[in-house]
Amino acid sequence: MAGESIKAPFEPSAGDPKHAARATRSAGRKMRSLLLDAASPLFRERGLSGTAITDIAAAADAFPSQITYYFRTKEALFVECACRDLLYLARATEQAALKARTPREYTHALAETVTASDSVAFFAEALTLTRRRQDLAPLVERTIERLHSEGARAYASQVARHGWRSLRAPDESSRRFWAVAIGVILEGYAMGRSPEELCAEMLRVLGEQAKSTGDTARLRLVEDASHSDEEG
Is residue 228 pLDDT above 50, yes or no? Predict the structure, then answer.
């Protein structure tokens, strides 16, 4: 029969060392993810001091020893949760801005998405924590660099896609955006401002980021008219 000529794919036995190592790594990644998923909402709601390792373990249906095995300390878990959540927010922000047709719409979509979440404030707590725990600083540094590099890539892609004229280099625009976001949101949280107020303040501070093709054309016409008047 034709079916008998088809060889079954090779499947490594459970006793194969490479197979066992892959299975162990996969299980480890899954457990880390489960612990991060369980810890993040608890940390956001109760803070670092108000969240016990036993609470996180119970929420993840895990053992407290698994938390210390994968993250060593509650503080390290806190920082990793905050860093992961910020990168998730950055991805959501980029997605929200994809439908923008003008630089103004693009900046508004970014600011509105960022200020609607508490991920930036959560990350700021991690920043403060690393001042006393320098062993946790490398993760924060890598997160910030990734935030800036991916932000610059996304911004450059939008500028090229629409033919906008950026007023700053993509890397400078990305770094400036996140610096403004962190500053405005932290100040706003302290003042009890709403997400709408935070968004408005971000837009005010950021100002114009780029000019659209139509804006550039109109600007060129004005400049040409000025030169003609001067020559006349």
Answer: no
